[in-house]
Amino acid sequence: MNKFWLLVFVFFNSESFSFGNSVNVTTRPNVVNIGAIFSFNSTVGKVAKVAIEAAVDDVNSEPAVLNGTKLKLTMQDTNYSGFLGIVEAFKIMENEAVAVIGPQFSVTAHIVSHIANELHIPLLSFAATDPTLSSLQYPFFVRTTQSDLFQMAAIADIIKYYEWTNVIAIYVDDDNGRNGISVLGDKLAESRAKISYKAPMSPGASRSETTNVLVKVALMDSRILVLHTYADWGLEVLDVAENLGMLESGYVWIVTDWLSTVLDTYSPLSSKAIANVQGVVTLRMHTPDSKLKTNLVSSWSNLTSRKASNSSFGLSTYGLYAYDTVWLLAHAIDKFFNQGGNISFSNDSRLTHLGGGKLHIDSMSIFNGGNLLLQSILGVNMTGVTGPFKFTSDGYLIHPAYQVINVVGNGYRRIGHWSNYSGLSIELPEILYAKPPNDSSSTQQLYDVIWPGQTTQKPRGWVFPNNGRELRIGVPNRVVYREFVSLVQGPDTFGGYCIDVFTAALKFLPYAVPYKLIPFGDGHNNPKVSDLVRLVSAGVYDAAVGDLAITTNRTRMVDFTQPYIESGLVVVAPLRKQNSNAWAFLRPFSPMMWCITGIFFLLVGVVVWILEHRINDDFRGPPKRQIVTILW
């Protein structure tokens, strides 16, 4: 009997031990569902489609990546439609996908991110560059490419490098365009430049609408134009600009990385298209050379022939980031399983009351392991075809860098690089990372640019606009020191030394400058110069003329000319005219001072005589002699 109970005890203990181990071991599924939503026929999408499919094949062909688990990819075509992007996202998520690659467009990403937040399904976008998508509002949105925050910083540094101050922004009036230009304005303000005119264009604008927008731009004074649009539409904008004569000498076109994407995808461009981009400066996301990148580039033509119906197109940087996105997700899923995660879904209690109807919203399920998978994605540290692939604490990819490209002839030339580590440089960013960071103005450097009009001379950046207004010049209307500036014979007529200097300087200019002098102050009290300077900084006045003292605080707000009146350190004393004569040497001292000096002179002589006459024969003799000795 005792042996029987001993066997029972051993049996149950062995079962308990076995059950305890099974709790900590996650059974990996054979297949993990992932999705992808983007526009298959777009410039970015057609490249991304081939790259994503190739990456899935590469991951599945290496069992060691996921320890035997395969990725099952479902791709949906949004066909340039934000509405279809939402519908396709629902279709993928209801099939229990653990993650979605995309969306491609930032407009769609804003909406789909709300769905991802509710269902705890990470979105990994290789092309949505809107800076505001990195906010805490969208925790399940993961950007696997560079943010426009850094691209706009690079453009601002280029403008600062060439010492331009006024910029015109031409952009698509959607979330991506507005938010990108907003960041550009902030970056320009850091170097005391600004966007003087914004020219928004409706998404999908017709050629006539584009023409109307650019005609208004041509009437402005600034010739520094920043074009922020999409790859499928940008060439048409530049074609309209060329027809309007806006690609001639004197203009500067700085466009975002859509142009480099077009050049990489469709090179060589048609003769008409390449003629419309001569002298344009654009950016391209920098990806360091590596063996992984070389292997993908060398096999790209075979991939496009097999996966793109024999159509031929090049590999853009967005394709490289799309390829790395799949590998990032594969490593994250493997890490997810290693941490004990399992794929399970549960009903959303807030959707159950929406049952009924043909949309079947109540069929959507929450991914229980979504938070763990999200942390696994953000914690991946790998090396891909784009180089080191790792996220910062803010959710950005490390080492953001861009190539600065100048389109010339039938191709382009690289004139430098930009990185948030050292700014503009002609050296490769990966070389600079090994050195101490240095983004001072003296170290910024680019090769020479061939600007529109085939000129290497830096454009001035502005002209007098055809519909321009007069310069508004603020003049302090003082009560005192009216010799410097004063209001004379009329409400807006000024005179004085400062006004004479201003008008004389204008005569040296080779062109006419229309201006209007505007009094600042009521004429009864002296106005505060700091308030006038502040209004110039705010744009109420274009400039100020007058006896304005240069102080440290004021130089932080505006630029001053070289001072044309400088007194230095002086002593002010009254001037009295007196006749000169032989007794002029007596004037420094008063008569009383001369008398006191004489008394001390005699007193010293008497003291010396008292001390010396007893022992010194020279101080003896008749009284007359002794008096002479005292005076001597």
Rg to the nearest angstrom?
40 Å
Spatial order of the strands forming the largest sheet: 7-6-8-9-10-15-16-17
Number of helices: 21
> Structural class from helices and strands?
alpha/beta
Helix content: 25-40%
Brief summary of the model shown:
38% of the residues lie in helices and 17% in strands.
Protein model, in words:
There is one protein chain. This protein is α/β, with parallel strands linked by helices and 632 residues long. 38% of the residues lie in helices and 17% in strands. The protein has 21 helices and 22 strands. Strands 7-6-8-9-10-15-16-17 form an eight-stranded mixed beta sheet, sandwiched between helices. A five-stranded parallel beta sheet has the order 2-1-3-4-5, with helices on both faces. The radius of gyration is 40 Å and the shape is elongated. Residues 1-25 have low confidence and may be disordered.
Main attributes?
alpha/beta, 21 helices, 632 residues
Map the helices and strands:
Elements: H1 2-23, E1 31-38, H2 43-60, H3 63-66, E2 70-77, H4 82-93, E3 100-101, H5 106-119, E4 123-125, E5 141-143, H6 148-161, E6 166-172, H7 175-190, E7 194-201, H8 207-218, E8 224-228, H9 234-243, E9 252-255, H10 258-266, H11 271-275, E10 281-285, H12 291-298, H13 300-307, H14 317-338, E11 345-347, E12 365-367, H15 370-378, E13 381-384, E14 387-390, E15 401-408, E16 411-419, E17 423-425, H16 429-432, E18 471-476, E19 486-487, E20 494-495, H17 497-507, E21 515-520, H18 529-538, E22 543-544, H19 552-555, H20 591-612, H21 623-631
